[in-house]
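WARN  no MSA supplied for this record, continuing single-sequence
INFO  ligand: adenosine-5'-diphosphate
INFO  echoing inputs
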Amino acid sequence: MSVIQLAGIERVFHLGDSVVHALTGLDVAIDAGEYVAIMGPSGSGKSTLLNLLGLLDRPDAGSYQLEGRDVTTLSPDEQAAVRSRRIGFVFQSFHLVPRLTAAENVGLPMMLAGIPAAERAQRVQQALKDFGLDQRADHRPDQLSGGQRQRVAIARATIMQPAVLLADEPTGNLDRATGDDVIHLLEELNQRGMTLIIVTHDPKIGTRAKRQLLMEDGELRHDSARAASPAAAT
Amino acid sequence: MRNADVLRFARDAAAGYPLRTSLSVLAMAIGVAAVVVLTSLGDGARRYVVEQFSALGSNLVIVLPGRSATGGFSPANALTTTPRDLTVDDAFALTRLPSARRVAPLAAGNSEINANGRLREVVVAGTASTYLDIRSFKMAQGHFLPEADWSRGAPVAVIGSKLQEEIFGNRPAVGELIRLGDRRLRIVGVLKSVGQGLGMNTDEVIFVPVGVAQSLFNTNTLFRVLIEARSRDEIEVVKREVAAMLKARHGGEEDITVITQDAVLATFDKLLRALTAAVAGIAAISLAVAGILVMNVMLVAVTQRTAEIGLLKALGARAATIRNAFMAEAAMLSLVGAITGYGLGLFGAFVLRQMYPVFPAYPPDWAVIAALATALGTGMLFGIMPARRAARLDPVQALMKH
Ligand SMILES: Nc1ncnc2c1ncn2[C@@H]1O[C@H](COP(=O)(O)OP(=O)(O)O)[C@@H](O)[C@H]1O
Ligand SMILES: [Mg+2]
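INFO  complex generated
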């Protein structure tokens, strides 16, 4: 069954007089546990799509069903709750809070969700151990390497056990070897059942995914799961 | 998000930007300290005046010639003509009132003292032996004016401590012959220093029998009559009886004014309280300025931490949570500033008291409460706008700021 179902999604930006169709006529369904790479040239709408999937943005038209529930009509607070419990974000620039330690950064989503400190501490400790960060618990982001920072970010994104993990160019700020480590980590999480959606323009990473979505000018040009699509011929 | 977590988060955020934080804390602290110190000064002035008046002597009732209460305390008033004179006979008649323990006439004027080869202008107070106890003065040397018939005065004088110092220096003054105007008088006593009171510096006054003063100034009138009531409760009785007796003696005219220390005190008390409140109000402006600074600091914080706010939203923070976190931070800045300022203000008042020991510079409770409440209030009030701005940030836009 589809964890994500997009139908007729439109997203239009107005920049002064010009109108940018960041997403047009998008119909995609993603099943639970899938490993999807969203690819395409810069400006093709990949991040816009990911932000919509993560409920950070609303479509101008179309419907979005997450785990069988229409989430576009939810109130902002209800959307926040969905982001808190069902969605995990990994960003290109890590987005760690600089004044907080690795452990505090990992615990942040639980703190925002109002989980008691004792339970948080225990779960953070376990997560840091799982991600090989137990020696770094009290380090601040500026005391961590790029790879360690992204691992903290992934630990943070998964601490609430979300249904979907969204990663926007997660290796964009990392060297090749560290980037590969991070991809392996994400794939491991996918193997344990988490739906994984990665935005990348790195073909090497893209081809590792079970399914590729190719974006161009806000349209879905190619979906490897639908090989019969017209774009596949070109 | 739990309240304890909101507070911890806000505290860490404030601690994360020490310069910004200490600046707004300082502004708030200065505002509160200003209120505390200035109201300490104002209230100190009030207490000082109250204490000075209490030093006039207890249960004091003062009779002034003239109808209105605006006679004032200037010795110059002694020379102004009034509808009907207050005479020594009037004063003596008052000694018969059962509620009056002591009565002292007071004639006043300026003259020249010539003693020990020195010449200077002095205030002359013509009075009687009872004056010493009514005013609770103490003798440094010798004795006060002797008990005698008020209409005839012995050629004696008692001088204040400053006069003794200026004219005689270290030499004993008692027994010395002096010239006051065209009179030759013998000094029989020197008063202990008491300072200001009844509009004249007693330390610079020469006391002579009332009869001597009146013939010196060639007048029949008294400047004041001082009466000491038997008890505090009898002050009002004395007031009534004095008014009635003098009215009868003056042919039914109500041409004198009776004032009590309490009434004068109440006026000064009211005046200085109003002054203190006004000063507090002016100082409170600095609190409003501090509030605006807190607002700016919080606006900077929102701008600086835009990416963080976007992240918090991505991690599932509700708008209210973000608003609360920023409000808590503003409140903390104000609270710490207010407490620091309170401490600073108390220290300032302490320094004032060390520098001027006679000046009881303590901040009144209401000022402290008002200052702390205003500090917190303005901090929170000016924190609302930045906090709401933070809560309304678009998460996608916010996340792009890095
Ligand atoms: N907030 C915005 N306002 C205006 N235009 C935007 C905004 N966000 C994205 N766009 C435009 O939408 C298009 C798609 O952007 P984006 O999704 O970021 O592309 P990608 O991530 O594939 O590089 C681009 O043309 C971009 O300029
Ligand atoms: Mg992008």
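Residues 69-82 of chain B have pLDDT under 50 and may be disordered.
INFO  checksum written, moving to next record
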